[in-house]
Amino acid sequence: MSDLNQQLLNFNQNQNFNYDDFYVSKSNYYAFKLIETWPKWEKNIVNIYGEKYSGKSHLAEIFRQKYKALKFTENQLNNKFFKSLKLHENLILENYENKTDEKLMYSLFNLVDQDNKYLIINSNIPLIKMNFKLSDLSSRAKNCILAEIKDPDDDLIYFWCKTLDCLLQLPPTVLSHTKSFEEKTCGVGEKGTIYKYQVDDGSRQD
Q: Which residues, listed in sequence order, are joined to residue 90 by a DSSP beta bridge?
């Protein structure tokens, strides 16, 4: 038997989607930057995609709180619900899996374009890889901003380890192969520069 032992730790997963608790790293920087730079988007529809628990819902909640967006799921899409969408400038379609009527989805795209609204679509896979039967919808899906949240990088893993260390007092060997950082609100810029976000307004400091 191996000398290495594994232990499964069972945590109560209390969702905390506060702005202050979102850790910015190379794996999620582009998606986070889009949230921060609204409404200066090249296109009005953004598709944030990545594996489950990658942070999509956390970013969506930050966007909802910061810009008073309406969040909904594809199960809510119907002709009656579209009337409520007209009352909001910013929209979030959460956990999209292409399980609803594609004509409704196409109508949502049209609504965003015609009324100059902004829409974030969260999904596990990018829209361009979904097998839409409606050719017009497939074409519109290719005209979105794609923002992938990638697998955790070293910075993000280290942050998780440090968080666990505070909770469980992990042995030093667990953290010995990760690099140090100053605080949880550190991030890595596009060119590898390290910067900090002010917690109060999200401004950048080099």
A: 118
CA distances from 1 to 5, 6, 7, 8 (A): 10, 12, 15, 18
Q: Is 160 helix (H, G, I), strand (E, B) or coil?
A: helix
Q: What is the pLDDT of residues 118-144, one digit of tens each?
A: 999 999 999 999 999 999 999 999 999
Measured over all CA atoms, what is the biggest interatomic distance in the chain, rounded to whole angstroms? 64
Distance CA 6, CA 149 (A): 28
Helices (H), 148-190: 154-168, 172-175
Decide: 152 and 77 in contact? Cβ < 8 Å: no
Strands (E) located in the chain: 45-49, 70-73, 90-96, 118-123, 145-148, 186-188, 194-197, 204-205
Kindly report the pTM of this predicted structure: 0.70
pLDDT in tens, 30-56: 999 999 999 999 999 999 999 998 889
The sign of the torsion formed by the CA atoms of 132, 135, 136, 138 equals: positive
Q: Which of 29, 48, 46, 49 is nearest to 38 (CA)?
A: 46
72/79 Cα distance (integer angstroms) = 14
Token pair belonging to 12? 């109560």
| 3 token code pair | 């000398």
